[in-house]
Here is the input.
Amino acid sequence: MTKRVVIADDSALARMFLRRCLEISGLNDAEFVEAADGAEALEKLKEVPTDLLVTDLTMPDVDGLELMRRISASPRLNGTPVLVVTSAGNEAQRGELMALGVIAILSKPINPPVVADALEKIFPELGV
Amino acid sequence: MTKDELSAALFQAVQDTLETMAFAEVRPYDESIDSTIDSNVDFLWGKVHLDTVHDLTAVEFCLPDEFAQEMADTMYAGMIEIEHTAVMDTVSELTNTLAGSFLLSFGEKAGKFVLSVPESGTGKSQPPAKSIVCCCIVDEIHFVRAVLFFD
Here is the structure.
């Protein structure tokens, strides 16, 4: 079954780069939906069930941390697997993000092997 | 971290970012062999402001306009028509990634920091006296510069 992946990042280049890494790492036939900030990501997540959210932290308006808080507070969205890919992934914030349900935090610049390792935790059936 | 350690970490961040994102080869600028490289071409810059990382306030990255367009071409790999917006987005994302990569070198000492959404523009500013400047040569022909700003 095709997996649905929402990618949230204010940079179009970063979204394209993430998508390419995810495709190389095993999600080559996924449906990718892009969002330029947290508010747009939330709308996309509410449309239909999503298998994975990949989000940046630093975004205008609703940033990644606020997005995670809203997902965590939503009975419908809570439990959506989330991967954070960010330049602002400092150690001090890691605990808060993990408590909100983030599965892995990856620091930019990312590369396919790092993404594949994270995907293995979320989709072991991919066998990446 | 000492000034030398900060300079080394900044160079490493430039190298990691450009090698990973654009498959570019980066080495330090060496005046004795790089004096023929024109560093007065048109430049674009990106800047990320930092909150609560000691007295560091911003990281800036600037590169020649023509090189930024080449980088955008490389990174988008022909998927879109490269226009000015895509070039500026490329500069912003490179700066954002470079700043994050640099901050990783602080480890837990960085504490809880916040990065701003990147700003970008045209031109090449004169770095203030209280700054650390890292000049590099990319793919043997392009001059790029990263700057750390302090309080």
